[in-house]
Design brief:
Blueprint lengths: L1 H5 L15 E6 L2 H9 L5 E5 L1 H6 L6 H14 L4 E4 L27 H6 L1 H14 L5 E5 L5 H21 L8 E6 L2 H5 L1 H5 L4 E4 L1 H9 L17 H16 L3 E4 L7 H10 L3 E4 L4 H9 L3 H12 L4 H9 L1
Parallel strand pairs: 1-2, 1-8, 2-3, 3-4, 4-5, 5-6, 6-7, 7-8
Helix pairs in contact: 2-4, 4-6, 6-7, 12-13, 12-14, 14-15
The chain binds phosphoenolpyruvate and magnesium ion.
Length: 318
């Protein structure tokens, strides 16, 4: 079985009837990027950049970031989605004191922190832009909840580009810009966001947490954390439909994407790209190669009609 899966390494993922699905990896380091490649992933769907910040003893400079991203992009130049810093919540930095918050997961994290600390944000965006000459780099903003934030982030990106132009440093002028859809407000208004970005990536970990008001790390209430809850499935479908209606790609980079049954469901809903831990890529690829798109669409339609996560799972398991 292992040997059979290993043979799929060089095969791009597509259904039996030729519907292509990008199978990418979630990474936080160069080492993990090699694992994705070794497991037959053709790109990075989520580079969690906070890991570089957490491993450092200072805010990484533009130059340090550029070098770090460049090494990763050179391993998988076909596509690397670099997510800007998602710090705060439970992710702290040894060299920075975050203000105490009553509700850190509802507080100043991710894009909110970056927009409040523009110099840090600018340094990261310049590092990302510089890496964009080494492969197809896309930039992605986490935890976006309204359009003003997206527009403000794009304005800082424009500043970063202008600074590089002035310095005569090359970058891809047409770098694609996307957002994570991981807050219900963004999923519900996905049609509005779709007009102002090049792609979506659905973060089902936070989307489940925020939609059901369930701490994703709390074992005592883990039974309430339900990716197959009808509300989650509807939010995912709304997001994917909005992307398709506007001609942009929608991916999924939460844990859901790496579950083989759920990966088939997501493909049937119309997701273009699934990003997961490297180790899950061969299994998911195997299942997709063995499925037909019409059968996955029918499966998705049946799952979308269920009323509980338990029912959905039953349908999914056939
Ligand atoms: C998510 O929220 O689903 C996600 C992929 O991001 P993270 O797990 O880093 O919050
Ligand atoms: Mg998240």
């Amino acid at each position: 079985e292992k040997a059979r899966l290993a043979q799929l390494k060089g095969v791009p993922a597509a259904t039996r009837d030729g519907h292509a699905v990008k199978l990418f990896g979630n990474v936080g380091s160069l080492q993990e990027t090699h694992w994705v490649k070794d497991n037959g992933g053709f790109g990075v769907g989520l580079l969690r950049t906070e890991l570089i910040y957490m491993d450092s003893d200072h805010f990484p400079t533009e130059e340090e970031q550029y070098n770090y991203y460049k090494d990763i992009v050179e391993v998988l130049p076909d596509e690397v989605i670099i997510r800007t810093l998602d710090i705060g919540g439970d992710k702290m930095l040894p060299y920075y004191t975050f203000p105490k918050e009553m509700n850190p997961f509802l507080g100043c994290r991710a894009i909110r922190f970056c927009l409040n600390n523009e110099d840090l944000f600018l340094a990261q965006l310049k590092g990302i832009l510089r890496a964009s000459v080494h492969g197809k780099v896309k930039v992605m903003f986490p935890m976006v909840s309204n359009l003003e934030e997206l527009r403000a982030a794009k304005a800082v990106l424009a500043k970063a580009k202008e600074a590089l132009r002035t310095e005569g440093i090359p970058f891809n002028e047409k770098i694609q810009v996307g957002i994570m859809i991981e807050i219900p407000a963004a999923a519900i208004a996905a049609d509005l966001f779709a007009k102002e970005v090049d792609f979506f990536s659905i973060g089902t970990n936070d989307l489940c947490q925020y939609t059901s008001a369930v701490d994703r790390m709390n074992a005592d209430i883990a039974h309430l954390y339900q990716p197959l809850h009808p509300s989650i499935l509807r939010l995912i479908k709304m997001t994917v439909d909005a992307a398709n209606a506007n001609g942009i790609e929608a991916g999924v980079c939460g844990e859901m994407a790496g579950d083989p049954d759920m990966a088939l469901l997501l493909t049937g809903i119309g997701v273009h790209e699934l990003s997961m831990s490297a180790s899950m890529i061969p299994k998911v690829k195997d299942r997709i190669l063995a499925s037909g798109m019409e059968e996955l669409k029918a499966l998705a339609a049946r799952v979308m009609e269920t009323s509980t996560a338990e029912e959905a799972l039953k349908v999914l398991k056939g």
